[in-house]
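[audit] Reproducing an earlier prediction to check determinism. Same input, same settings, fresh worker. If the tokens differ from the archived copy the diff job will pick it up downstream; this log only records the rerun itself.
[audit] input (280 residues):
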Amino acid sequence: MILQALTSTTAVAIAQRRAGLADAGIRSGRARMLLLRNTLALRTSNALAFLTGFVEPVLFLVAFGYGVGALIGDVSDGEQSVSYAAFIAPALLAASAMNGAIYDSTFNVYFKMHFQRVYQAMMSTSLGPLDVALGEIGWAMIRGASYAVGFLVVATLFGLTTTWWSLLLIPAAMLIAFAFAAIGMSLTSLMTSFQQLNWLQFWMLPLFLFSGTFYPITAYPDWLQVIVQATPLWQGIAMTRSLAFGVIDMALMGHVLYFMVIGALGLLATTRRLNALFLR
């Protein structure tokens, strides 16, 4: 009885706070509950998957940066010449933030949506679809930040960071994770079978290989460079390279705006889809 009374009192308080708000039907302001749930899940079953997202870019850095890099020498990024390891390090950080966000917002979200039916249960409470979207996307941002911190420590130990601007790689990784998680979750909400997730993985590999991760895109013809520059991973790599090399200009602001826009669009699309699926 006491628990029921407390639950009822909380529900009434939340309803009162939401009354009269434009987004009252989709948000209760309790997205933090998603973060709490994901934190508890990390402590039990998801820790290994979380850790591999950090180890993978470090392995690429060692294998390519110092293995292949010994054969290549310095690389020009258009502004200055840097070692090959320093050239690919910020790109691998951006790719790591992308991969972690996509994994969280596709496979994890699909499993919760169709097998565990977590979101159905959540939205039978005071939580709204915007709470769920913000919570899951926020978790992807935390994951991106943790990868950035760990990778930045490794890069510093290897002597690959030369400017204090490199500290901004942490919020940059969070911004990349925000955009990819928002788009990934919106696409996952449209999928009706687990096999459809393979299409996302099909596109992820060429995105990783051909977005300038391992070499400048000036190797491509002009028309192909324009296409590559429109992709989100290239935008992320260009942003992280600018910060890693201390190049602060209007182009950097353009990359930030790019991710803010597609992240906002993805968040809006995700909220609408969750609303349509579970609050009909």
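[audit] rerun output stored. Observation attached for the diff report: The first strand starts at residue 74 and ends at 76.
[audit] end
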